[in-house]
């Protein structure tokens, strides 16, 4: 029993190295896609005074305002 447990403990680093190579290959394929999506979603808009605001923040504020008015301020009155 001790031999089996020590053998399994010795093999754990080999399994983790094999999994990291799979992770690296998936990352190599997906990284260009996620970089392109990130550039579209998180591009910044200059708002005066030398400040820049991410577009996603403007989009979220616009959505929150529109739905608050559309639902007659239910998130504030309920």
Q: Secondary structure elements and their pairing?
A:
Elements (H helix, E strand, L loop, with lengths): L1 H40 L2 E3 L5 E3 H16 L3 H4 L1
Antiparallel strand pairs: 1-2
Commentary on this structure:
By secondary structure, the chain is mostly helical. It folds into two domains: 1-33; 42-78. The protein has helices spanning 2-41, 55-70, 74-77, and strands at residues 44-46, 52-54. Strands 1-2 form a two-stranded antiparallel ribbon. β1 and β2 form a beta hairpin. The protein is elongated. The N and C termini lie far apart (63 Å).
**What is the typical, i.e. mean, pLDDT?**
87
Number of helical segments with 4 or more residues:
3
Distance between the termini: 63 Å
**How many strands?**
2
Derived from helix and strand composition plus strand pairing, the structural class reads: mainly alpha
Rg, nearest Å: 25 Å
Estimate what percentage of residues fall within beta strands: 5-15%
The ordered string of helix (H) and strand (E) elements is HEEHH
Report the major sheet.
2 strands, antiparallel
Tell me briefly what this model is.
With 78 residues, the chain is mainly alpha-helical. 77% of the residues lie in helices and 8% in strands. The longest helix is centred in the first third of the chain and has 40 residues.
Features:
2 domains, 3 helices, 2 strands, mainly alpha
């Amino acid at each position: 029993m001790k031999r089996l447990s020590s053998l399994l403990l010795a093999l754990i680093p080999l399994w983790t190295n094999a999994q990291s190579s799979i992770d690296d290959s998936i990352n190599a394929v997906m990284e260009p896609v996620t970089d392109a999506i990130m550039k579209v979603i998180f591009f910044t808009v200059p708002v005066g005074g030398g400040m820049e605001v991410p577009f996603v923040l403007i989009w979220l504020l616009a959505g929150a305002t529109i739905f608050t008015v559309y639902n007659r301020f239910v998130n504030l009155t309920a």
